[in-house]
Amino acid sequence: MNVCHTFLMRLDKIQPSQLFISSAKLSKIMETLDPAKPETLDPIPIKKLEDEIFFTDGHTRAFAAHLFGLSKIRVFWDNDELDWEAYKICVGWCRKEGISTIADLKSRIVSSEDYKLLWLRRCQKMQEELKTARSQRHIQ
User: Fold this and answer.
1) What topology is assigned to 6-139 in CATH?
2) If you ran DSSP here, which 8-state letter would residue 11 be given?
3) d(CA 97, CA 19)
4) What ranges do the domains of the chain cover?
5) pLDDT in tens, 53-109
6) Angle ∠(51,54,57) on CA atoms, nearest 5
7) What is the C-alpha separation between 73 and 119, in angstroms, rounded?
8) How far is residue 59's CA from residue 63's CA, in Å, rounded to a whole number?
């Protein structure tokens, strides 16, 4: 990921694209983040989907920043090629579950094992379904 230009953005203006946070990952970040020095938090990648800005990664870091009371975080425009269809699905899941800001993930901090079951497997299944649908569209 090429981080060219970072800037501050309000946390409550960025749509999550993930339904759960791993408690183990969150604990590690909470141990290393110094709220007095928010610049120590690595910038978080964002993209724009239609008229909405969303996280492409870094949900755990963003949630840790929220827990430390930060209202703004350093972000950058993610230049990586994304699977837009997959991200639309993930953002749609979040909207359906009432998750519109990183703060909305407060009741969705789960163990590493549950994270694998609830989030990673769900994403893997979605990717498999997309692959099948795309191959069928290609055949037609």
Assistant:
1) 3.90.1530
2) G
3) 8
4) 6-139
5) 999 999 999 999 999 999 999 999 999 888 999 999 999 999 999 999 999 999 999
6) 155
7) 24
8) 6
